[in-house]
Specification:
InterPro entries: LytR/CpsA/Psr_CW_biosynth, LytR_CpsA_psr. By secondary structure, the chain is α+β, with helices and mostly antiparallel strands. It has 9 helices and 17 strands. The radius of gyration is 20 Å and the shape is globular.
Length: 333
Amino acid sequence: MSGYRRRQDKKRLYKGLGIAAAVLIVGIVFVALVLGMADHYRFNNDNSVDSRDTITYKDQTYTRKGNIETYLITGIDSPGKVQELKEYDGTGQCDVLVVIVRDRSTDECKLLTIDRNTITEVKSLDDDGTCLATTDIQISLAHSMGLDQKVRAENTVDAVSHLLGNATIDGYAMVNMGAVSVVNDMVGGVTVTIEDDFSEVDPTLKMGETVTLMGEHAENYVRQRKEVADGRNENRMHRQSSYEEAFKPAFRTKCNEDNKFPLEVYHALEEYMTTDISAKKFCRLALLLSDENEDEKLSISGTYGLDEDEWQTFTPDEDSLQQAIIELFYEKN
């Protein structure tokens, strides 16, 4: 029996017993650019994070930043518009997770990209949103729990918050990856150099060629993974970063031509996303993130592996994770 079927059967069994929900594991950064963190942590005596305003880590004292706001932007592995769900099918996982921390006093932004396969504590939800259990699984699965889109979004926020030491997330946007082609075409296409072998999924994307991505080809470039290169998410994240850098000037050009363009993008995305970010906030963040200033980008190092069903995993290095949390939310005394 396949891993997919086994996990379907486990979910039904656990649900009937009332013990836990089983999860399915099935197979933008650009989203952060068009859309646009955190007060509470834990640091124990062993150098883990807590909710105090002042903490000590490796003999250095840090104070929590007070004038920041935090957003979680995710790209959801769904090709079309957001739809009402009638039954659990394990779809709708996060392909992209980006945490944006904005300093309100300087308008400087820091971006943390989280690997979708990061192992962390995730709540397993029943169809009605009831929490059945918490399990250490891939963070991407948080958005596949429950049937209500808002519940899925909030469960994802909860998982990211837990990973980052119980950080407060001030806003979120869960955007279906099908929106990539929509926004891509609104900016007139995005020019990239193809560095991977796409022959199995999109023969028009030929390795070594520089092309202007349009329509479904843009979505293929940022979304496809299993049949591209080594099939690892690490490779796709690098490709998404390249797309992001090429997208920024194209988006900025359109904004310079029409100051209402960010609002047009917001309205174009509405059918593809679940968000609590207002149109006004969206436009401000979009302009801020697409300006010519270099945003600081952070990442978490760790170990790649496979779980018992041969699905990819990423186990964060604890020290690297702590350093990312401090960089985002604290400053030296």
